[in-house]
Amino acid sequence: MKREDEIAQENIKLLFCKLYDELHTPGEICEFRATVNELKTEEGRRQIGDRIRDLFERLKSDPYYADMFEGEEIKYGDYWIAYVVSELQKFALTHEETDTDAMGDAYEIFIGPQLKGESGQFFTPRAVVRLAVDMLKPSLVRRESIIDPACGSGGFLIYALRFVQREAREHYYGESEGRIGARVKEYANNFIHGIEIEPLLYKVAKSYMAIIGNGRSGIFCEDALISPEGWSAATRARIKLGKFDVLMTNPPFGTKIKVQAEETLRQYDLAHELNEGQPLAELLSGGQDPAILFLERAWQLLRRPSGNKPGGRMAIVLPRQILSGHDKYMVEIRKWILNHMRLLAVVDLPPETFQPYTGTITSLLFAERVSEPLPENYKVFMAVANHIGHDRRGNPLYDREPDGSLKYDENNMPIVLDDLPAIAKAYGAFIRNEDFELDEPSVFSVGISEIKTQAGCRLDAWYYDPTKNEVVKHIWGLDGGENGSIRVKKIVSANK
Question: Which domain holds residue 51?
Answer without folding.
Answer: 1-95
